[in-house]
């Protein structure tokens, strides 16, 4: 354990490597599931496309804000580090608790449900089939990670390109396939009930993961100069891919067809390429979902490890396994929480949507705090030389923060009871601050050097 605690990330990633990893983090199974939910909450096809473009612009603005923070404070701790420096260790600890119990574990359960939805299309097991497949996937992949099996970098790149190939197949077949173009959809719900805010939650969820690029700054060559290039180029590529993919889905299935589908890519391929095409794209999506789920389980356990080192009451999950070269106890704890969330989702109408409801308010609340950190750190360190400055300051971070605040409001106002459960779980973590180790008590952010080791375990990849 001591050996790994002393390890520090090395700057070995090129800009191309980092962009590829960023795209791989974002292009997951969300694009194969969320379009149907977005379509159900917009009044027309034009609005459907516009919300995807708007989501891309918001993502780009957020990426520019993160670029300033990441360039000025390069650290593998990412958001944990930004929050610690801007607001103190207690705020960072609450973020860590949120990652452990809501954000990361909710994401694991949500991805598992998406995987279950697609497998259930091929091998149905009744109304609880998706939940059963989801639970089985979490158990198996958690077990694999506990024994120490780690997917290599080359395998991750291969799976990333499989994901991109699946999106490319949607674009090509959807835009140039032989299926008849459906008639323009009529509004099948009163326009006043079309919750654009809820639609944006799922659009931005699909773009989600771009902020994880902040965790690459500890390993990126010349991070202060290159992180802005990574975030900007990666976001532009994602916006183009997602917009074209949704135009293709819409051109094949139409708005009403999207609203009635739980597996949009499979339904589209069935229409344009028959059952064989459906099986091929479903197989690619299942592979992508397994990869996304495995990566989410793998990275999430690092948060448990970091929390275990900072909180005496969670000491048991802060143990680094010498045999498996991983935080095995943290992975087990993470798996147990994810299975509990899957059980919660199983009793709802849509387990995937329930997990989005559960995570969204907490996620957007902390993202707002990260956006405000741009202002806080500039105010606290007025003479600091910034390698990269967000364009159009202060307008750009103001737009980002206002968007995050609106998304926080929308994620409470337009979602179900699971959102309140997520907020309650976050609040339940406050007493844990009483168990912070004395040497981890809040420090003045000005006294903490930016080159300090990250508050997370070293990346074994």
Description:
With 461 residues, the protein is mostly helical. Helices cover 68% and strands 0% of the residues. The chain has a single domain (15-434), classed as Amino acid/polyamine transporter I. The protein is globular, with a radius of gyration of 21 Å.
CATH architecture: Up-down Bundle
Q: Tell me, what's the shape?
A: globular
Residue runs with pLDDT of under 50 for 5 or more positions: 1-9, 184-194, 440-461
Average pLDDT metric? 76
Residues in β-strands, percent: under 5%
Q: What is the string of SSEs from the N terminus onward?
A: HHHHHHHHHHHHHHH
Question: What count of structural domains?
Answer: 1
Q: Radius of gyration, Cα only, in angstroms?
A: 21 Å
Q: What is the β-strand count? A: 0
The number of distinct helices, counting runs of at least 4 residues, comes to: 15
InterPro entries: AA/rel_permease1, AminoAcid_Transporter
Region (Disordered): 442-461
Organism: Cupriavidus gilardii J11
Protein name: Amino acid transporter
């Amino acid at each position: 354990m001591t050996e790994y605690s002393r390890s520090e990330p090395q700057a070995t990633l090129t800009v191309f490597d980092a962009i590829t990893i960023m795209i791989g983090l974002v292009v997951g199974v969300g694009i194969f599931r969320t379009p149907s939910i977005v379509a159900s909450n917009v009044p027309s096809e034009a609005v459907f496309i516009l919300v995807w473009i708007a989501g891309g612009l918001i993502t780009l603005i957020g990426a520019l804000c993160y670029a300033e923070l990441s360039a000025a404070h390069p650290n593998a701790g990412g958001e944990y580090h930004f929050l610690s420096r801007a607001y103190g260790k207690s705020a960072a600890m609450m973020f860590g608790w949120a990652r452990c119990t809501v954000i990361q574990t909710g994401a694991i359960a949500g991805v598992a449900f998406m995987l279950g939805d697609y497998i259930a299309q091929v091998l149905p097991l009744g109304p609880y089939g998706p939940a059963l497949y989801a639970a089985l996937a979490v158990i198996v992949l958690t077990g694999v990670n506990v024994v120490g099996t780690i997917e290599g970098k080359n395998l991750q790149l291969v799976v990333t390109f499989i994901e991109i190939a699946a999106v490319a197949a949607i674009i090509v077949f959807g835009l140039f396939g032989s299926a008849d173009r459906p008639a323009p959809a009529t509004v099948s719900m009163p326009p006043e009930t079309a919750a654009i805010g809820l639609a944006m939650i799922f659009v931005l969820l699909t773009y989600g993961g771009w902020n994880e690029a902040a965790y690459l700054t500890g390993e990126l060559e010349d991070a202060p100069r290159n992180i802005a290039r990574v975030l900007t180029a990666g976001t532009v590529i994602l916006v183009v891919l997602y917009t074209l993919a949704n135009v293709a889905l819409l051109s094949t299935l139409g708005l009403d067809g999207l609203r009635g589908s739980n597996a949009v890519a499979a339904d589209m391929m069935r229409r344009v390429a028959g059952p064989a095409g459906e099986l091929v794209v479903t197989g690619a999506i299942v592979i992508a979902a397994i990869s996304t789920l495995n990566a989410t389980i793998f990275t999430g356990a690092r948060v448990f490890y970091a929390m275990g080192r900072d909180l005496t009451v969670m000491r048991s999950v802060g143990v680094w396994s010498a045999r498996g070269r991983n935080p095995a106890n943290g992975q087990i704890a993470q798996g147990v929480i994810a299975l509990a969330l899957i059980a919660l989702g199983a009793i709802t109408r849509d387990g995937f949507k329930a997990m989005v409801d559960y995570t969204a308010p907490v996620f957007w609340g902390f993202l707002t705090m990260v956006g405000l950190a741009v202002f806080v750190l500039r105010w606290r360190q007025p003479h600091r030389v910034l390698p990269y400055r967000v364009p159009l300051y202060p307008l750009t971070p103001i737009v980002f923060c206002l968007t995050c605040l609106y998304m926080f409001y929308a994620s409470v106002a337009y979602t179900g009871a699971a959102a309140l459960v997520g907020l309650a779980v976050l609040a339940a973590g406050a007493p844990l601050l009483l168990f912070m180790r004395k040497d981890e008590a809040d420090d003045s952010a000005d006294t903490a050097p930016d080159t300090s080791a990250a508050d997370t375990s070293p990346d074994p990849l």
